[in-house]
Amino acid sequence: MGSAAPIAGDVVLTARNVAKSYGNIDALKGVNFDIRAGRVTTLFGENGAGKSTLMKILSGVIRPTSGAIELRGEPVVFSSSSDARDRGISIIHQELSLAPNLSVRDNIFMGREIGGPAGIDFAEEARQAAALMAELEEHIDPMTPVEELRLGQQQIIEIARALSVDSRILIMDEPTSALSASEVEVLFKVIRDLTARGVAIVYISHHLEEALEITDYAVVLRDGAMTAKADRADIDLDWIVRNMVGEGYDLGAPPTGYPFGAVALSVRGVSVADKAGHGAMAVDNVSLDVRAGEIVCIYGLMGAGRTELLECVFGKGSKVSGEVWLEGREISRLGIAERIAGGLALVPEDRQRDGLVQTMSVGENLSLASIAAFVKGLLLSRPAERRVVDDSIRAVTVKTSGPAAAIGSLSGGNQQKVVIGKMLGTHPRVIMLDEPSRGIDIGAKAEVFRILAERARAGLAVVFSTSEVSECLSIAHRVVVMSRGRISAEFGHDVTKEQIMAASGEAVAA
Amino acid sequence: MTQASPSLDRSRAGAVGSGFDIGRVLLEGRAYFALVAIVAVFSALSPYYLSVSNFLTMSSHVALFGILAIGMLLVILNGGIDLSVGSTLGLSGVIAGALMQGVPFGPLGVVAYPPVWAVAVLCCGLGAAIGLVNGVLVARFKVPAFVATLGVMYMVRGVALLMTNGLTYNNLGGQPALGNTGFDWLGFNRIAGVPIGIVVMVVIAVIGSVVLTRTPFGRWLYASGGNERAAELSGVPVKAVQVSVYMMSGVCAAVAGLILSSQLTSAGPTAGTTYELTAIAAVVIGGAALTGGRGTVRGTLLGAFVIGFLSDGLVIIGISSYWQTVFTGAVIVLAVLLNAVQYRGRAKRPATAAGPTPSPRPAA
């Protein structure tokens, strides 16, 4: 290590009283923030707290309205993100920014291709890409097109790209949202390697427990202002949540005091072929019964087959074998519309891609799945639609200025509630939610779970999938663990985190 | 969190407030203002422009493109494109011409002369069939709409040329003795002084508008054009919607073909060449997004009128048709630019009133 390398713990980048306003709205209200060499500084805060705004300022994507940034004690103004990158600051954005048609190698070196005597030195690029893959312990051929990788692997490529720059300050905005537990572990190992080399890391994550594991310093933002900061040794999960939300939080408990009804959904020996088509099974002979009023949580890592199972039950994607029964009626051959009419509903995993129509208003999105309910003769009845929409907005407590608001004007949590409200509006007997908490903050998450528990009490059968153990331990009566397409274990609500983790395949792999 | 989440964007719209309103009105009503400007300018330049008879003449020119454009709008709302409408228009006219000459039944030596209404129905059926081919190629076989309809465009044009050997049917009048007169009704008659072509366009526009805004099908179309996957998972029959829009577009093209050949009293195999591009231009000028999910019948009609009144106006004041082409192109480019401005603005700044909650928090 060169003599110029800063001593671990030294402040390398400082935000002094940084504020950012959009119109008369203050996204950041004068934040002081230090980033230290060789340390992981974690930024906690709910959606809208100002985390991403602050990170965009520190990485040169946007400029602060007021305040100053100091790089190793010198005031700096970044003209662009590439300017910041040239000064050793790089960022892994929350959204993936890969070209799906290009190979892993081409993506990693996109925009900074290594020149050779005859154009690009592809061999050198491939060598470095392979080395990065080895460092991240992924068995990915650098020549694989990115579109053939699953989401978690794509995120790994994004991380590899940031690592390939060799920066002194690395900002990671939700780098693990699509990673499995083992991939997260590898990432953490890489982060520790980097910090040992003196690289300063800024880490943002919604997975609080996971983030705590890697944190050296914790900083909490709320409403654009810093509410707390502390050393890792002095804090715990409660401290973070208290400072983030300003109050205690609770994901709820299984609703009790009522008997379950008859079996509402019965999945019998369902198998689904792997999309990548390696002859493998994404879902392998899964059977599952869910009774009316029961809440079942399907826990599994990325790639365990949760999404494929739920989509197949809903009639999307190709089933290989098996039957699906809804309230004593076989629905295996019905189309999606008929399954919805029969009382089945699915809230998909990726709400932007599969849940919302971005060109339509909040109201039109909410009523999309239950159009039949407000058709009079041949025409739609506006008053009847308005009633359906108002009921839904009230039922799932969407915070919006009204049904005519653009769907993009809502926060992530409220968008998710719109998707849930849309499907609840079809008056389902069984609702399946694929990672309903993905990308929404704790408050919204607790509210979603509260709504589901309420509906279950009224006789709705609820199936939700998750990759966060803490969510299994909330409202579910029963926890089903999936691993490599199979159900590996089933537990009651008194299950422990360790039991779930052990059954999820991590233990098998170890 | 129990706080409302009213985005920064919306509050910002409130903040910028009235200063932007004029700009927004001009932006959103741009096709309308463009039309008013065109009428005003040409009325000033030519004494003949501003008269009822000239407006009716220009409108019947517009009607042809208006009908094509409404069909095109449905396809574009779905996120597709239909390049085959010009050829379908041509073939529809040719088939009508052939039917008017009589259909010989080979060995029997009998020649059937279908009445005009039957000719019209058969031509519309032909348009629907061509649309069905487009729709099945796109929806079932996943051929990109541009390529599928490009291929069909060539094939249909080729069939029209083969059928006529490149020649034109000139005798569309029919004979009273054969009971097949009246083909000229579409092109020359008037209802309350209004040419039939305009009436047909208005009827199609009203039907299209009601279908889009007031029926489940319209909602399905906007939804599947905006996000096909989300629509499918909400139970929308996306495939059926996709096939239907191409069929409707084909029928619109066939109707336009009947009107054109009636107006010209002849049916040529090359009629309607490049009309598909004018129809697309009208839809775009009318504010529809080529990515699907956004657009209205009203906007599309305005777009058709802007193009029609502009080019007819240029003719009336005696500007060369080469310049017309340049002007039309410039209007299209301008329209697309403004579309981009509008939709970018909408994405950042939803056009809704400020939320009811007093403490908006920006999305980080």
From TrEMBL, chain A:
> Record's Gene Ontology CC terms?
plasma membrane
Molecular-function annotations in GO: ATP binding; ATP hydrolysis activity
SMART domains under this entry?
AAA
SUPFAM superfamilies with a match to the protein in the record: P-loop containing nucleoside triphosphate hydrolases
Spell out where the chain crosses the membrane.
none
Localization in the cell: Cell membrane
What is the scientific name of the source organism? Lichenibacterium ramalinae
Superkingdom of the source species = Bacteria
What family, per the record? Belongs to the ABC transporter superfamily.
Keyword Ion transport assigned? no
Membrane topology, record value: Peripheral membrane protein
> Any idea what this protein is called?
Sugar ABC transporter ATP-binding protein
- Record bears the keyword ATP-binding: yes
> What are the protein's UniProt keywords?
ATP-binding, Cell membrane, Membrane, Nucleotide-binding, Repeat, Sugar transport, Translocase, Transport
Q: Where is the ABC transporter domain?
A: 13-248, 267-509
